Amino acid sequence: MKIILKYTFIFFLTISFSAQEIENIFGDKTEIYFSFDYDKKKQIDKISKIISIDHKSNRLKIYAYANKKEFLEFLKFNIDYQLIEEPLFKPNTSSTRSNWDYYPSYNEYVSLMQSFADSFPSICKLHNLGTLNSGHEMLIVQISDNVGVPENEPSFLYTSSMHGNELTGYVLMLRLIDEILNGYGSNSKYTNLVNEVDMWINPLANPDGAYAVNDNSVSGATRYNANSVDLNRNYPDILDGPNPDGNPWQDETVMFINLADSVRFNLACNLHTGAEVFNYPWDRWSNLTADDDWWQHVSAQYADTAHVNSNNGYFNDLNNGITNGWDWYEINGGRQDFMNYFKFCREATLELSSNKIPPGSQLPYYWNANSPSLINYIEQSTYGLRGVITDSITGNPLEAKVEIIGHDVDSSHVYSDLPVGNYHRYLVQGNYQVTFSKNGYKSKTIDVAVNNNLATTLDVQLSNQNNTVGIEFQENPKTIVNSWDILGRSVLNKKNTIIINTYSDGSVEKKIIIE
Ligand SMILES: [Zn+2]
Fold this sequence. Notes:
Structural class: alpha/beta
Shape: globular
Number of strands: 23
Distance between the termini: 91 Å
Bound molecules: zinc ion
Strand content: 15-25%
Number of helices: 13
CATH topology of the largest domain: Aminopeptidase
CATH class of the largest domain: Alpha Beta
Radius of gyration: 25 Å
CATH superfamily of the largest domain: Zn peptidases
């Protein structure tokens, strides 16, 4: 009895001391930033479920954010920590405000997004995914030729700054929208992307965090949203279920889940800052994805191109600017893994700058360093194995499963999308056996060869099991496997020039498409 009393007393003391300590530490802040020495990976993985480990962390030191409740839990581990006072971002009032060297006010942001759609109505649409309690809107632009009309094109997504104090990508995305729209018809790369891809760009995924203090400035921006929740721990998790962080889905989370439910994104990237690295799946477990080689190829392309376009020493964190998520630190409830596992979308996490909110004057540098890589990454969405799946008799497009035999694992298969029936399966160079299947239809397995940075087109007709007509359709033997221009560069539907198509039956044909 005596012993129990004694322990109860000590337990009480610890908790009440911590609660007081927490009030002192937080003051009027809703989240704090701190560091502690890296111990064992196992312990870090446990702690990462409680607090929010920051991108700045490395194998020696962990940097993290916590709200009051999370910090109380952290204290129970009895780990020595150092509080970090992040310098308050000071907006540069002398900046020109014309060369994308400033962070716009919230209202300027809304006007910019509106003006994109107003100025380029035939290729740009503005969508509001929802309005937060604060009145802030979750805005996203959709860019494509025949914008809003479903076509045989991959759907691509860039979304930035779900951590409200990581803002380099916020301005870079606004500039990317501006450059693509203004370059349409003159810049051949931008024109090709608008013609061939259904692009969605959301520059600011956590407006309440970015404008935590007021709408005039991002000074005082927070990582978390207005409810002190880390949005990048708030998604359904492969192992921990729908609410891995113990919080209900935030409005921001619901908006993005709804978006992913209505648009079948094929390739995506989620932009952050705090480090300089391209982080590919998985974040939550040590399993490698089926397409680890492809991810390494795409990541290396991003990093290598960024190195060419920047000063020495930029974008070389971890393995020279590339990392597997799990190798860095575990994240549960992250958006990247959610999109990959539950939405069959290839999504990566991009860390653009060590400085979370660099001075506005440095933003043009980050643009020059990253814009070619950002464009290349969008271009990747047009490559790999792709085509349209239809009913062999009616010709109607089908939503069918596309699975690589002996290769797919952990939800790496994809589906074709209606109303067009198009599918997009990104694969590293190699030979694959692909099975196309749908309930009520006879499955088909076809051998294909895929090349890096090229599209292999394979349209497939599936025959309904109830068909008694007795006709078994073979795949069109003249499927285009590769297209090249006369200099041997890969091209996609290039107009007014000679292109050489190689077909799946081995034949080669020269042609010219006149616009
Ligand atoms: Zn982040």
